[in-house]
């Protein structure tokens, strides 16, 4: 048995691991590379394996850095099943259609800019490929063991990262022996709102574990919430401006809505006027509500309260561009949540244009801002920013709320590893920047006394 780390090796994005046995070949995730300069090129390059030869794909969750190249995989000849939880399957439909739109749009833009003969003029994949990928999805429930190949059984466990997210347990027979492989996927921080805590896993022969925040501890949630409450009330009641919140459509938007409702229920907010200005976030928020059964106790209690009580915040979703523009007439009293989360595209840019130059308004940053993005410049304290080709002074207050992270921090990751009854024969640290992954691997060696490796991108390892 052999594993190849095609992505998310010494970096966070591009999750894709290939496992080969005597009788089977399959992938865990097939994600896009994002952020750094060569990402577009790597997304465009042919796969390092023959997509035709892959028997099936196991998908841990719907985030694009785990799922975004599935349409390309199908376009290149893969015709097998993609196994996912049912919530992931529903989210995937929204995410892949949106991604196909972006690929088609980028290709058209390249043609319009006179680069008709460049590689960029052909989309990496189109809507037909996305629809094909969506049709190849087969859903599997959490916590049940399924045979997905004569020699392979699998089980999804809740990873507590986003709706539908899963840890994958696999029992693989190869050369007469059965071995257990565990892929952590992205692990959530325990105690977060809406989602359940990551499931404990007790044993594995081979473990692949993420390390996004493997080198640090998150600021405590109570302090983060206090700062959030202060920022919102100060803006709406004292300064009389707007609160602008850039947020990823999947995950973060729903969490912010949750906090705004829950803190109103606790009496810390009054008469909130919230707009979610992102069609994709709207679709995902509706879908999130439909999966109430996957929520934790507190989230179910809150949903009940918001259906039955007075004093519930006003929450409106804007769909059309005209509705979105109409928000510009509000100079005070509104909270606007819009994508993209790092302010690189989408409607958030319009809301920043109308508010960033006003002392009365506030920009609330709640998610990771990669180097080189507009969001990062705002976080780093730029006095002026360029939006759609024009310079705007930054006069609004800017708050960065680090404690709302969707990933487990170092302590939570070590706790999760601590549930294993004995060290796996082989462990690999992935899905973290090189420095972070190395530091986390060292932490595992010293604290748990495990043998652990940090694979390079493209590296193949013989397991047994
Ligand atoms: Zn994720
Ligand atoms: Zn990820």
Report on the architecture of this protein.
The strands form four sheets. A seven-stranded mixed beta sheet has the order 6-5-4-3-2-1-21. Strands 7-8-9-10-11-20 form a six-stranded mixed beta sheet. A six-stranded parallel beta sheet has the order 14-13-15-12-16-19, sandwiched between helices. It folds into two domains: 2-216 and 408-462, Metallo-beta-lactamase, Chain A, CATH 3.60.15; 221-404, Rossmann fold (3-Layer(aba) Sandwich). By secondary structure, it is an alpha/beta fold. A hairpin with a 7-residue loop joins β8 and β9 (166-174). It has 14 helices and 21 strands. The protein binds zinc ion (2 copies). Residues 61, 63, 161, 186 line the site of one zinc ion.
Keyword list:
464 residues; alpha/beta; Metallo-beta-lactamase, Chain A; Rossmann fold; 2 domains; 7-stranded mixed sheet; 6-stranded mixed sheet; 21% strand; globular; binds zinc ion
Quick structural gist:
The protein is of the alpha/beta class.
Calculate the terminal CA-CA distance, rounded to whole Å: 5 Å
Give every kind of bound small molecule, once each: zinc ion
Low-pLDDT stretches are none
Radius of gyration: 22 Å
Q: Largest beta sheet, briefly?
A: 7 strands, mixed
- Strand element count: 21
Mean pLDDT: 93
- Can you list the strand order of the major beta sheet? 6-5-4-3-2-1-21
- Number of domain modules: 2
CATH fold call of the largest domain: Metallo-beta-lactamase, Chain A
Coarse morphology: globular
Broad structural category = alpha/beta
Determine the CATH superfamily of the largest domain: Ribonuclease Z/Hydroxyacylglutathione hydrolase-like
